[in-house]
């Protein structure tokens, strides 16, 4: 096993891990740290690490699975939902920098094919650490986040399709009409075949697999690996690149086709194997191929490419975004958010280098472009969002909207009616009378067993943002929340926990990242009674300084005669009062007495 | 990415998958099918597939992770518990075939080092499809199964330690005292260092990791990969082989050191990545190196090695097993069960071939030895166990013993008292009075919240074989069963499900492979009342022909006035009546009326 050079692999992995971790700590995507540490420790600077055949093999396999994973993460539904605005942003953010990159290379006497490659690389979008930065800047529920996500998805897909279009022509030297048709025909055939197999073949396979009950997770995983490699080979046969096949395979490996549970596990293995092990090898070794001499020999080109990438992306996005009617300021904000380049760009640049389409200099420039554009994102995006925020132009929107509430008892109904003022609310309960009563009072309510997926599907759980479980039975609440979490991925989960000593403890909330409703164990029955008998008082209290729900409850000595139920923000929007929440100064707490 | 030759990798994987699946269907371990299809499609016969640098790299990485996974699956506790009998079987089953293999090679003019290699390969034990065959032959709860498991564990560990002893000397040509000391010293240093790091370093790391809450599964996985590679490198530095390091690392990556939840996920990824993807590449390509010419050129040696392996293993085991006092027949049965050779043998043979220690001929012989010995297992073991069974010498025993019952209500207590006649039974309940009552009546009962791990630990859940949840609240039953399943891996789970339409449905049992108590949704309260008021009749009915619990219940029209609670086998042993069980002719059903 001397060929494997365990030491080399080990060092590359440690480097990747350290680089990725440091980058993540500072708020950047791990890939940035991996590239930088590759440049630092590789031949370009310290020369401690070097590439090898074995590393290349692992990196290439890693990239295939990473592309498959990226495909798996793209949901057709999301693409379909991607608003007009997202489409505009994606196109503008791609076309303008693409053109700038292309012409820069042409002016600097590069080949047309190299120019096209650089164009794609410059046009690509990567959301820097996706949700992380959006969370940090408290953007997750804004329209910006929504457009950014959609824009990046479309942009990735667009870039890969154009990449497919170009790569087919690489081997064809002088192009005549027949040759062109042949190349384009093969590519189109590939996409048609892949789509047909994905749409009609996969569901058949899925059905077949679901019938053979003895078959386990590993078996499914092996099949997925084979599918990904088969699609890659199909792409190669069509004269395209394997990563396109892997990406297409990933697009079609999705829920509804294969069983939800199996898919979840398989996705974990794909994710960890590629992102946690193989793909970082690619990004670190990509750093090995970077030449620092470009700072001397090609400084002008380097600056022009980076400038073109940044300006092209931001201005292009803002320009094309105008027809959305959301204003040029929001367009610029979107542009700064989409300015990062990441995995897909480095993969495309790496393939270009490997195929001899671009030189080491151009490759190095593209790597530095990725690094510098990604570095701009947190900085620029903080500026632009603060700017929007100060002008009051930060519009809220969320792909998942509204509340799904389990428990149509008087307390649940009371909360539902208040949340309904600004949000979509659906109640579910197994008690027909309560459902009837809720519908009477104008609240959408659905009758069904809360521990069955059917009921959740009827209530459109997959589109809901928050799940509240407030039956009097903590265990039912917990089991239902597990379903909401595991099968419907509802991001926010709030659970009413009973104070009964023998009941389930709050320790069961942690694995689901759920929060405790009312920030305190609470007995539902007495409050439900008080509400139905109208024997309560609703108080509103304005909070004077920033605080947490925990402190609010603590200050009142966990008084059982007080029940904090909602927080009202400065715009009058209400949200439920629960354990994992902060209360800002001037927000109000509604509590019952 | 032309170097990767996706097509070749794809074909090898498909071959591995088909071979493995067919072998599994027919009741053999997948590795058998992988080896055979490698021989069939590789250069030896059809010549369709061939090896490549890339395949070798992936295979070698796969073997490292497979060894780490094998190590992870070995539990120190299990090794410690491994009975005197298991140790005897392991030693006898290793030493005798080792000696036969060694002297056969020496007689045939092989080098001493080659003879040692063959000795280990012949001595190794692999349980053919481990639990599968034990399930098929209904052996899971017998002493044989217990000894087999322990024997295979010890044998694997023994083989790897001896392998380490030998491999250190490979590079040392002529051995003088100083050289010997140096080689042995390095090996001992490695084991000491690895053990120290494992025992003292890992828990520190585990603590550190558990403190940094933001850190996720993938992060842990990457760290585990790095640890495995680091141990491999350490082994290589000590002049040993990387697989030893990976195995040692796996031994120390275990519960108590790292968080249970994280470890579970990480183990899944290790398992699927190695067994579902990379390791099969190794076994298929191992088949590529087999030469069929040995059937002409070395037929005598081939026959001698296989005969020595089979006879040595069975006779050796039986001989050394005598001091256990369990009789020579059981010894021979154990021997036939341990006669398979699998992953570890092929890996060792592959390393020998790669290092030039053994020739292609010897390698081929070892592969055929693995195939033929593994083929004997189901056949021989069926014979020997039937033989024991007919003589009434099939002794029951299980590593996990007894029942853990949640719910000390009258019904639970009633069942506990009956099961207690032949089994260990522990009751848990959160009601102190019920606990007191149970203890009064001579049943071990523990007070605590059934949804907390502490309570389960107090009740020694990790050693229990069956968990029964029969509180009146289905949801508590389900949550507790989840805990029993996910954190304490209790193999059999039986849950009382309430007939209440709004309660949790039986669909929630499937993911845990749990069964429904009484084979029917049942309301606990009325029966508990009847028992405590002594207003019931206990009937016993002998079943006339083989049937299932489902049919038993069905035949009585799901009569709510009858409650089948226990099945009594011919030896008078009782077991709870639940959905997933068969009733044999002449077994009795105890039911309440």
UniProtKB/TrEMBL annotation, chains A, B:
<keyword id="KW-0050">Antiport</keyword>
<feature type="transmembrane region" description="Helical">
    <location>
        <begin position="84"/>
        <end position="107"/>
    </location>
</feature>
<feature type="transmembrane region" description="Helical">
    <location>
        <begin position="6"/>
        <end position="23"/>
    </location>
</feature>
<keyword id="KW-0813">Transport</keyword>
<feature type="transmembrane region" description="Helical">
    <location>
        <begin position="145"/>
        <end position="167"/>
    </location>
</feature>
<dbReference type="InterPro" id="IPR036291">
    <property type="entry name" value="NAD(P)-bd_dom_sf"/>
</dbReference>
<keyword id="KW-0812">Transmembrane</keyword>
<feature type="transmembrane region" description="Helical">
    <location>
        <begin position="187"/>
        <end position="209"/>
    </location>
</feature>
<feature type="transmembrane region" description="Helical">
    <location>
        <begin position="30"/>
        <end position="49"/>
    </location>
</feature>
<dbReference type="GO" id="GO:0015297">
    <property type="term" value="F:antiporter activity"/>
</dbReference>
<feature type="transmembrane region" description="Helical">
    <location>
        <begin position="362"/>
        <end position="381"/>
    </location>
</feature>
<dbReference type="Pfam" id="PF02254">
    <property type="entry name" value="TrkA_N"/>
</dbReference>
<keyword id="KW-0406">Ion transport</keyword>
<feature type="domain" description="RCK N-terminal">
    <location>
        <begin position="400"/>
        <end position="516"/>
    </location>
</feature>
<dbReference type="InterPro" id="IPR038770">
    <property type="entry name" value="Na+/solute_symporter_sf"/>
</dbReference>
<dbReference type="Pfam" id="PF00999">
    <property type="entry name" value="Na_H_Exchanger"/>
</dbReference>
<dbReference type="GO" id="GO:0006814">
    <property type="term" value="P:sodium ion transport"/>
</dbReference>
<feature type="transmembrane region" description="Helical">
    <location>
        <begin position="299"/>
        <end position="322"/>
    </location>
</feature>
<dbReference type="InterPro" id="IPR006153">
    <property type="entry name" value="Cation/H_exchanger_TM"/>
</dbReference>
<feature type="transmembrane region" description="Helical">
    <location>
        <begin position="55"/>
        <end position="72"/>
    </location>
</feature>
<dbReference type="GO" id="GO:1902600">
    <property type="term" value="P:proton transmembrane transport"/>
</dbReference>
<protein>
    <recommendedName>
        <fullName>RCK N-terminal domain-containing protein</fullName>
    </recommendedName>
</protein>
<feature type="transmembrane region" description="Helical">
    <location>
        <begin position="221"/>
        <end position="253"/>
    </location>
</feature>
<feature type="transmembrane region" description="Helical">
    <location>
        <begin position="113"/>
        <end position="133"/>
    </location>
</feature>
<feature type="transmembrane region" description="Helical">
    <location>
        <begin position="273"/>
        <end position="292"/>
    </location>
</feature>
<keyword id="KW-0472">Membrane</keyword>
<keyword id="KW-1133">Transmembrane helix</keyword>
<keyword id="KW-0915">Sodium</keyword>
<dbReference type="GO" id="GO:0016020">
    <property type="term" value="C:membrane"/>
</dbReference>
<dbReference type="GO" id="GO:0006813">
    <property type="term" value="P:potassium ion transport"/>
</dbReference>
<dbReference type="InterPro" id="IPR003148">
    <property type="entry name" value="RCK_N"/>
</dbReference>
<keyword id="KW-0739">Sodium transport</keyword>
